[in-house]
Structure formats: structure tokens, C-alpha cells
């Protein structure tokens, strides 16, 4: 429908106007093709620069995946007893100068004391990563510029 309207409109123009419209069409089409070619070449150059880094990252990720698969195939070390974990927790608290009372409980380690919040969080993170102890329950209260803490650390579940 639109094409027939354009043909009818073009037929009403004199030959000189039709030639100018034809030339303009060729110029516009050529410009669009040149812009597309320029974009294609610049994109190709960008990808040529990025490809080595992407391949190196892929190789690193594949090596990491292989290492992870090897670690998963290893048998986990025997779980430390609560007594050993209690000693380790006390040593870590003393090293961080935390005023914590740490006792062995049937469910895990009972902790209580008054400490700086950031030091407590750092200590709890180390207990989880090094001793596989997670927070089972925790009660916190503000005590001046420190916090009072009472809680239970329980052994994390094994896979």
C-alpha cells in the first residue's frame, strides 16, 4: 500500500526530481553501509583485544573448578571434639583480647562476656571458618561502648 503510494507520487515528479531522489537514496544507502562496516571493524578490534583476557579468565576458572572438584573428593578430617574446639576458641578469644567465658555444653560451646562488637564478629567468623562452629543462639545487650553477649556455638552440619 505504501509502496504503491510512493510509486504514484514518484510518477508525478519530473525526471530531474526523480534523478535527485535516486541519487539521494544511493547516498543514504551507501552511508548506512559504510557506518555498518565501520562499526563492525571497531567491534572486531575490541573483541580481538578482549579475547586473550577472557581466555585467561576462563583457564583460571577451569583450574579453580578442577581444584574444587579435587577438594570435594577428599575425605573431610575427623571432627574435632568439643573439648578441643573449646580450647581453640579460648585461645582465639585470648589472642584477640576478648573478655569471654567459654564453656563446653552438651550442644556446643556456651559463651558469655562483654566485648567490642567488631572484635566479636571477627572472632565468630574465625570460629566458623576454623572450628566449624556456628551461632546456635545469641543474645546481645548494649553495655556502654561494648556489647554484652550470651550464646551458644554449635558444630556446623557436615555435608
Binned, the helix content reads 55-70%
Strand pairing plus helix content: what structural class? alpha+beta
DSSP helix count?
4
CATH topology of the largest domain, which one? Gyrase A, domain 2
Characterize the largest beta sheet: strand count, sense, and whether it forms a barrel. Answer: 4 strands, antiparallel
Strand content: 15-25%
Strand order of the largest sheet: 1-2-4-3
Description:
By secondary structure, this protein is α+β, with helices and mostly antiparallel strands. It has two domains: 2-73; 82-155, Gyrase A, domain 2. 62% of the residues lie in helices and 22% in strands. It is built from four helices and four strands, in the order αααββαββ. It has helices at 2-12, 15-73, 82-95, 117-131, and strands at residues 100-105, 108-115, 133-143, 146-155. The protein has a four-stranded antiparallel β-sheet, covered by helices on one side. A hairpin with a 2-residue loop joins β1 (100-105) and β2. α3 packs antiparallel against α4 (117-131). It is elongated and about 100 Å long. The relative contact order is 0.08.
Amino acid at each position: 500500500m505504501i509502496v504503491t503510494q510512493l510509486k504514484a507520487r514518484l510518477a508525478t515528479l519530473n525526471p530531474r526530481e526523480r534523478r535527485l531522489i535516486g541519487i539521494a537514496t544511493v547516498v543514504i544507502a551507501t552511508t548506512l553501509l559504510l557506518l555498518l562496516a565501520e562499526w563492525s571493524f571497531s567491534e572486531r578490534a575490541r573483541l580481538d583485544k578482549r579475547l586473550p583476557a577472557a581466555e585467561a579468565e576462563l583457564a583460571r576458572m577451569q583450574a579453580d573448578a578442577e581444584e574444587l572438584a579435587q577438594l570435594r573428593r577428599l575425605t573431610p578430617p575427623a571432627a574435632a571434639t568439643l573439648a578441643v574446639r573449646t580450647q581453640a576458641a579460648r585461645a582465639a578469644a585470648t589472642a584477640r583480647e576478648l573478655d569471654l567465658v567459654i564453656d563446653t555444653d552438651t550442644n556446643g560451646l556456651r559463651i558469655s562476656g562483654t566485648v567490642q562488637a567488631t572484635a566479636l564478629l571477627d572472632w565468630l567468623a574465625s570460629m566458623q571458618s576454623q572450628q566449624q562452629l556456628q551461632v546456635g543462639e545469641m543474645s546481645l545487650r548494649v553495655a556502654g561502648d561494648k556489647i554484652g553477649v550470651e550464646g551458644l556455638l554449635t558444630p556446623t552440619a557436615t555435608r
